[in-house]
Design a protein that fits this description.
heterodimer, A: alpha/beta, TIM Barrel, 10 helices, B: alpha/beta, Rossmann fold, Dihydroorotate dehydrogenase B (pyrk subunit), domain 3, 3 domains, seven-stranded mixed β-sheet
Chain lengths: 305, 256
């Protein structure tokens, strides 16, 4: 059923543009204690790898102005455990199931897709994480190189009919180049942006606050960077964009959509207010009513000077 | 289904316990009526970005209030300790798993620093249940002693009041007649909890500890506040969430 909030990302229909961002919602279970997840457009799973990962040791979070650094390091139970224990929960939640796929090498990503493809009836899209800054190999290393992005995207494209959303890193000089590489490789959409790499230092010990030394910066502070990147890519891409970065209220959603996003991911703000998507959804409905529009009309409506 | 809520709660009382630690009372009947010792709340801290977690120090079900203790250690705790009664803050709670006293006739509560706040809640709960409770608290020196009762065993590092030494020196004075029916609960700095855990295991007693780690969400979704616990897998350990899987753990599970 179509409503004022329904949007499409390529062939994927979402009842709302609000998707929970990977790494800020686990697999949805804990947030289901706070609200009915079926109001959401989708849930993007915790980043998954072939084998379970313990993640990084020590301190994993450092507060910053208007945001935080994290260096969780893709702690996850492994894809097999996920399929066995979490996939059905996500499917039953009523929100679209986005499975976030991470790896340390091309082979890892390929193994992940071949493992997940048989479960395609339960999955709405695969979000290929080429952008996690907190692991030593794979992810952001691949995601910083247009040729590598093109290669791995086309390789994965040949292995599955599931929609491929490529989640890109902002830690590059030219986001258009990496986004275009994903499109050329056969991506169905790009997700912009993952976290910005940062560091905080304890001035007493002169050591980084994070035991991993660096981490990914998220929260309202990164929002203008994300909006700029969505707007830039929107001018050159034919495939849809999912906007992500510092979204905390309905105005942020509207801003991202005007910039060119077809849907958005909300993450760090939910760490502070777990039920925030309920308020954003209600506010968006009101906004659509008051302005007599369907949200999808906003996508790419930016009027540049 | 009843969903968990984020509450907007009012600060109703405030007193300083020493120069850098204050005791705050908040009105929230839902938290006051449902919290158990060892659980915590996550409270918005003025202008800083993340909420701050505090172990619940006491509840008053009749008035619908609960207390936390706040020691100033950084910007967030400085802002919170500057709050005046009447202010409204966002609060998640009660969060996490508390202590499990079931099956024990005697409970020893021990700790130090801000650990004395959850111990206070445990003491009030256990005495109201009619359990046999012994409390042993350790501080650096007399000026740091807070929430102390005459019946408590008191230790200080410098010996300017109570027994000179760590809480272990105080625990050694307790006559434990039935270790299998005695539980020890510890809330304090990691070296203290590790030492108490070893002490308890030598005595053949079960020990529960309340772990602390830098926390973001408090709700189990970000995986920032991990605690290393023993695991049968190839690594021999796994990272679990302090906020959701803890903060209270059986001390034998923890990789110290």
């Amino acid at each position: 059923m179509s409503s004022s909030l329904s949007v499409k990302v390529g062939n994927v229909s979402l009842k709302s543009p609000i998707i929970l961002a990977s790494g800020t919602c686990n697999f949805g279970r804990e947030l289901a204690e706070y609200y009915d997840l079926s109001i959401l457009g989708g849930i993007s799973s915790k980043g998954l790898t072939i084998k379970p990962r313990a993640g990084n040791p020590g301190v994993r979070v450092a507060e910053c102005d208007s945001g935080m650094l994290n260096s969780v390091g893709l702690q996850n139970p492994g894809v097999d455990y996920f399929i066995e224990n979490d996939l059905d929960f996500m499917k039953d939640s009523g929100a679209a199931v986005i499975v976030n796929v991470a790896g340390h090498s091309y082979e890892d990503y390929i193994d992940m897709i071949t493992t997940l493809d048989p479960y395609k009836d339960k999955i709405d899209a695969l979000e290929i994480n080429l952008s996690c800054p907190n692991v030593k190999e794979g992810c952001m290393t691949i995601g910083s190189d247009p040729a590598a992005i093109r290669y791995i995207t086309s390789k994965l494209r040949s292995l599955t009919d599931l929609p491929l959303w490529i989640k890109l890193t902002p830690n590059v000089t030219d986001i258009k180049a990496t986004a275009l590489a994903a499109q050329e490789g056969g991506a169905d959409a790009v997700v912009l942006i993952n976290t910005l790499m940062g560091m905080r230092i304890n001035i007493k010990t002169r050591r980084p606050v994070l035991t991993n030394n660096t981490g990914g910066y998220s929260g309202p502070a990164v929002k203008p960077v994300a909006i700029r990147m969505v707007a830039e890519c929107s001018q050159v891409l034919d495939i849809p964009i999912i906007g992500c970065g510092g979204i905390s209220d309905y105005q942020d959603v509207v801003e991202f959509m005007i910039a060119g996003a077809s849907a958005v991911e909300v993450g760090t703000a939910c760490l502070i207010h777990p039920a925030l998507p309920v308020k954003i959804t209600d506010d968006l409905k009101k906004y659509c009513e008051e302005n007599g529009l369907n949200l999808k009309e906003l996508t790419g409506s930016l009027q540049r000077w | 289904m009843d969903f968990k809520k984020e509450y907007r709660i009012k600060l109703v009382s405030k007193e300083f316990l020493n120069e850098d630690t204050c005791y705050l009372g908040f009105e929230c009947p839902e938290i006051a009526s449902s919290a158990i010792p060892g659980q915590f709340v996550n409270i918005s801290a003025g202008t800083v970005f993340l909420k701050r977690p505090f172990g619940i120090a006491s509840v008053n079900k009749e008035n619908g209030t609960f207390n936390i203790g706040v020691k100033v250690v950084g910007k967030g705790t400085a802002e919170i300790s500057g709050f005046e009664p009447g202010i409204l803050v966002d609060c998640l709670g009660p969060l996490g798993n508390g202590f499990d006293f079931d099956g024990y006739d005697n409970v020893i509560l021990t700790g130090g620093g801000t650990g004395v706040f959850p111990i206070n809640f445990a003491y009030e709960t256990l005495t109201s249940l009619g359990k046999n409770v012994t409390v042993c608290e350790g501080f650096r020196n007399a000026s740091q002693v807070i929430l102390n009762k005459p019946s408590y065993i008191l230790t200080t590092d410098c010996g300017d009041c109570g027994i000179k030494g760590t809480v272990i020196a105080g625990l050694d004075t307790i006559d434990i007649s039935d270790p299998a029916k005695t539980l020890i609960c510890c809330v304090g700095p990691i070296p203290m909890m590790k030492a108490v855990s070893t002490w308890a295991s030598e005595k053949g007693m079960n020990c529960q500890v309340s772990m602390e780690q830098r926390m973001a969400c408090g709700a189990g979704i970000c995986l920032c506040c991990t605690v290393k616990v023993k695991d049968e897998g190839p690594d021999g350990f796994k990272n679990v969430r302090c906020c959701k899987d803890g903060p209270v753990f059986d001390s034998r599970e923890v990789v110290w």
